[in-house]
Design a protein that fits this description.
The chain has 391 residues and is of the alpha+beta class. The chain folds into two domains: 170 residues, Sandwich (Jelly Rolls); 210 residues, no CATH class. It contains nine helices and 19 strands. Strands 1, 2, 4, 7, 9 and 10 form a six-stranded antiparallel beta sheet that branches. The relative contact order is 0.10.
Length: 391
């Protein structure tokens, strides 16, 4: 199989060859998933690496009676996605090579327990099939290559389904395409990657229906620690023995903490929800891929890197040093975002010099308060993206 696989579920897309139980024959632009689960059989990719599984789905909803549909995706027994959908969606799941690279053929099980028969709405007349999602397309895309098979420790972790089960909470659900600005913004914000120090950009991307993977997307990332890491050639192996799971005494959320640089990666898992040792192994297994992807992004100059001010504006000299450290690895562009002040308007962006932009939003807020800043963030992203493409 090629590194990238695409299956169209239309009547002429050839998808029947990989369909198992739980499908109606393809018709029109797609095929209906029937019953409680549907199965696909895919050939193992020839190129070792981590892959992104993307599903384009239309939901079968009836307001007031069937308002949502649950979806769980298992690949060779490992849960890679677990979501509740309230409409049409593009669902993306990270599939690690230890999960995908074992058998010659991979079994993908799509569990959808909320199917129903359209005949329910017409007094028992009409289509009697119990249907859930209308599948349009599936794509399996290589994210990052591996020179060799997974190391024994990683494969051991993958051998326990619970190690990967919590990854379901990280599966991306991308909002369906919308007319006008919605579609543009969904695509546009994927060209930005957070450098911290908080989660503001990650919340902006989520607001616009994008859930990209990113090393620092949902992490506390002190700028001084980030600079020290980049100047010191930070890499995943350097975390051995110094990154460990910690429990926040107030929120009771677990975070993976790098004790040297002060990074704290949110896990979204709380005390009592998961066994701490399994969660720590999972988080440590994720890091090599995320670090590798971060440096690939720097080398390719493919994204705008975003640094936010905290309570006070960052020291310009520190920002210049950070840009220089980033540019050791590629043609990086840095967008430095702060709260509007001194005559600067929210949504304004200025090109300060080679590879450096300065943007302003109404306020640097997180959590519920962040919603009030989305219009300004959207304006900053649009203008920064325009200037980046024109440079």
């Amino acid at each position: 199989m090629a590194e990238d696989l695409e299956i169209k579920f239309s009547h002429d897309g050839g998808s029947s060859a990989c369909m198992g139980a739980g499908w109606s024959p393809p018709e029109g632009i797609g095929a209906w998933m029937t019953g409680a689960q549907s199965t696909l059989v895919l050939a193992r990719p020839e190129q070792p690496g981590d892959y992104l599984l993307t599903l384009e789905l239309q939901s079968l909803l009836a307001p007031g009676r069937h308002d949502f549909q649950r979806l769980s995706v298992r690949v060779n027994g490992a849960v890679v996605c677990n979501q509740v959908l309230h409409g049409d969606a593009v669902v993306q799941c990270w599939v690690p090579w230890p999960v995908l690279g074992g058998p010659a053929q991979s079994t993908v099980v799509l569990a959808h327990p909320d199917g129903w028969a359209p005949a329910e709405l017409s007094g028992g007349e009409g289509d009697q099939r119990v249907m859930s999602f209308h599948a349009l397309a599936l794509r399996l895309s290589l994210l990052t290559e591996r020179a060799s098979q997974a190391d024994p420790a990683e494969r051991e972790a993958a051998g326990h389904e619970e190690t990967w089960r919590e990854e379901a909470g990280r599966a991306a659900v991308v909002a369906p395409p919308r007319d006008g600005d919605g579609l543009a913004m969904h695509r546009l914000v994927l060209d930005f990657e957070s450098l911290g120090p908080g989660c503001a950009l990650g919340l902006v991307q989520r607001h616009y229906g994008a859930e990209p993977l990113g090393l620092f997307r949902f992490a506390a990332t002190p700028t001084g620690g980030l600079l020290a890491a980049l100047e010191g050639d930070f890499h995943a192996a350097s975390l051995d023995g110094r990154a460990a799971l910690a429990l926040d005494a107030q929120t009771r959320e677990y975070a993976l903490v790098d004790r040297v640089h002060g990074f704290a990666w949110h896990t979204g898992r709380h005390d009592g929800q998961v066994e701490a040792g399994a969660l720590e192994r999972q988080e440590l297994a994720r890091l090599p891929y995320l670090v590798r992807r971060f440096y690939e992004t720097l080398a390719g100059g493919r994204k705008i890197l975003v640094l936010c001010d905290e309570d006070e504006p960052a020291d310009p000299a520190l920002v210049e040093r950070l840009l220089a450290a980033l540019r050791r690895h590629g043609d990086a562009t840095l967008l430095w975002v702060g709260a509007a002040a001194d005559g600067r308007a929210a949504g304004e962006v200025e090109w300060l010099g080679d590879g450096l932009m300065r943007g302003w939003v109404d306020r640097l807020a997180t959590g519920r308060e962040a919603v009030a800043s989305m219009a300004a963030w959207g304006a900053v992203c649009r203008e920064a993206h325009r200037m980046w493409q024109a440079a």
